Amino acid sequence: DAGVTQSPTHLIKTRGQQVTLRCSPKSGHDTVSWYQQALGQGPQFIFQYYEEEERQRGNFPDRFSGHQFPNYSSELNVNALLLGDSALYLCASSLGQGKRGNSPLHFGNGTRLTVT
Amino acid sequence: AQSVTQLDSHVSVSEGTPVLLRCNYSSSYSPSLFWYVQHPNKGLQLLLKYTSAATLVKGINGFEAEFKKSETSFHLTKPSAHMSDAAEYFCVVSEPGGYNKLIFGAGTRLAVHP
After folding, report:
1. N-term to C-term CA, chain B
2. Which phi and psi (to 5°) does residue A96 adopt?
3. What is the DSSP string of A20-53?
């Protein structure tokens, strides 16, 4: 049973560029959430996708956008990259938006983004 | 607004001695609380969760946490540390209505010495 998989594992970009990160949820899960973890900090919620729509959003600018596909996989896009966007980006999946008590989040290993 | 405060950024223990990682929370609602662990270059793994059932919650790998409403605390403990316990630990509270929008503490780095 595959868990949450993310690609790529590492990425280096230049300021001003755009980046796309990908996530495949755990088998049987239909909801994907994205988190940003800056160095030395706890993860921060970016947004959640369910039924191919953004359902919740954290305090992140519009440069951060996403998409969910019919097979429940998801992409995170960041435009006009800033140095401060350097972080570990974590994808997490769950069932039914996590509203069911027995469906906590399962996290992937993350994508390490470095912006130079 | 909900938040968690982890009282120690670093904790160092000897192998075989008890572990205590401290967490205080702030919530307007009856909170759902979690502890997650993150090993280097790995994602987050759920250790345990509290969801208004028993106040003493048992998790994986011998960890447990006690919810104390009067003290707004949710401290994580383990009777005997193992070298493999060395990692970053996060105390987490969830927004009402689901487990997806988690609010993480800043983390406590646990070092275990032989």
Report:
1. 41
2. 65, 40
3. EEEEEPPTT--EEEEEEE-TTS--EEEEEEETTE
Give the residue from chain B lying closest to A110, CA to CA.
B43
Contact A105 B101 (CB under 8 A): no
Report residue B96 as tokens: 């009402």
**Residues near B29 by Cβ (< 8 Å), separated by ≥ 6?**
B2, B96
Interface of B with A (CB under 8 A): 34, 36, 41-46, 49, 51, 90, 92, 94, 97-107
Q: What values do phi and psi take at B60, rounded to 5? A: -85, 160
- Cβ contact B29:B97 at 8 Å: no
Q: What is the pLDDT along chain A (116 residues), one digit of tens a residue?
A: 579 999 999 999 999 999 999 999 999 999 999 999 999 899 999 999 999 999 889 999 999 999 999 999 999 999 999 999 999 999 999 887 666 555 678 999 999 999 99
The single-letter DSSP state of residue B75 is E
B4 CB-near residues (< 8 Å, 6+ apart)? B23, B24, B25, B26, B33, B74, B91, B92, B93, B103, B104, B105
State whether A48 and B101 contact (CB < 8 Å): yes
Instruction: List the single residue in A with minimal CA-CA distance to B107.
Output: A42
